[in-house]
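Sample pair:
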Amino acid sequence: MVGIIGAAIWYFAVKPYDYSIAFTTNTPSGIIYERIEYWPYESFSNAEILEENFDEEVKHQLNFKDKSLVIDWNISQINDSVNKVKAIVRHPESLVSSRLSLLTGKNKEQDSLKKELEIIRKSLEEDKSNYKIAIKGETKAPKTDCACMSLKGQLQQKAMLMMTNIGYLSDYILKYDLEMPAKPRVLVKSWDKETNEIKFDFCFPIIKKEGLSETDKIKLKTLPSFNAMHVVYNGNYLFTHFAWYKLQDYAKANHLKISDQILEVFNNNPEMGGTSIEWTTDIYTLIKD
C-alpha cells in the first residue's frame, strides 16, 4: 500500500512532465531546430515560442482543442551524425486531469502529437534529396584579393542579400575591366546565435592593377588564408548554412574547436540553369588554436 501511495504521489506531484515522445534522425541539429522553431502544427493551435536555445531546445505554448499545454522540444546528440528529438509535454493548468487521461489510455492529444512528430521526421528525411554535405577534413582556406561589400542580416537572408547587391560588384568589375581569377565568395566575420544575425563580406576575386579606387560600397580587401575544416555542400545556395550545422555537430562530437569565421566559395552560377543539387559550395571554417 505504501508503495502504491508513493508511486501515486510521484506520478501526480513529483514527475516533472506528463509524457514524452521521441525519434532519431541523422539530420544536423541546426536544421531540426529551424524546422521545429516555427512548425505549423496540424492538430494544435495558437503556438507561441516561450524559450529557445539554438540547436538544442525550443519551448512552445499551444492549445489542443480547449486545453493549454507546453511542449519542450529537446535536441540531443547521439553521435556526430545522429540526433535525438524529444517532445516533453506538460499541462500546467490541468495537470491531474491530463495525467488521469494518460492512465486510462484515453488521450487523443498524445495520439495527435505522435502524428506531428512523424510528419516532422518524414519532412526532414524528404528534404535530404535536396542537398548533400561532405566533411573533407583539415586544410588551408585560399588567400584571395577581392572587391568586397560588407553586409549584415539574418542568417537565412544571406542569399537574398547577395542577390540584392551583386549588381554593385558586377558594375565595379565592368568599370575597371577586371579579371576574376576565382569564383565569388562570402567571408562570414561574425554569427550571433541568439539574434541569428551574421556580418559578412560578399566578394568577387580580382587581379589587382593600377588605378583601382574604392567606393562607399565597394572596398578592396585581401581575404586571408587560415587553418580550416573543409566541407563541400551540394544544393541551393539559400541553404549553404546547413553545412555549417553539420560541421557544428561534427565538431561537438569530436571535441574540435571551430570559430564563426566561415569562407564560402560558390562554384556554380545559378543563372546558367541546371538542378540545384549539382551546385557546389566549398566551405572553410576557421579552426581555433
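Confidence is low (pLDDT under 50) at residues 6-14.
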